[in-house]
Amino acid sequence: xxxxxxxxxxxxxxxxxxxxxxxxxxxxxxxxxxxxxxxxxxxxxxxxxxxxxxxxxxxxxxxxxxxxxxxxxxxxxxxxxxxxxxxxxxxxxxxxxxxxxxxxxxxxxxxxxxxxxxxxxxxxxxxxxxxxxxxxxxxxxxxxxxxxxxxxxxxxxxxxxxxxxxxxxxxxxxxxxxxxxxxxxxxxxxxxxxxxxxxxxxxxxxxxxxxxxxxxxxxxxxxxxxxxxxxxxxxxx
Length: 237
Known about the structure:
The chain is α+β, with helices and mostly antiparallel strands.
């Protein structure tokens, strides 16, 4: 039986400026307060410690900026999307702004389980000295038929041997220091943008220091294809 008191919405937002340095947990707390200030009819969980029913797509690493972050929120009733968008932005801080809101079908998967890929601009900071042929060598490296690498495992330590080429869906250099890249970001094989840039710099013998890159996430994508093995990317809104 359909729960008429539960309506799910997806929110797309920007994270930039000084707020790039707040943690994912702080972002969660921030939105909990924003929804209260905006007086949205948020649905809470049941039990001894009720909490807002919200989930995030793919937590952004500390220090990254983004124009394509997503969260799902469950409300107790439908709202006017234009009014909600305006009100949320009125009570939001400058570095976290809402770009879009969409009502989801009743049985839509949550945004976290939908994540398949993400796109980035990765810029090598000026403090890092690049070789003259950095772009050419990097293009040659990424254009190989196979790119065998040892990727650090998320849990338990150690490394996972893999062909990185299978998980890079697109790339191009925006300028001599900035790489646009579209990477797999699924739960099983999540490729970090700094991991790829480290490979490119190591391939060129470039000496890296702390915090060598400025990384901006452009958007997050799901695989809209129903055919096994076929990739058809689309944004979560």
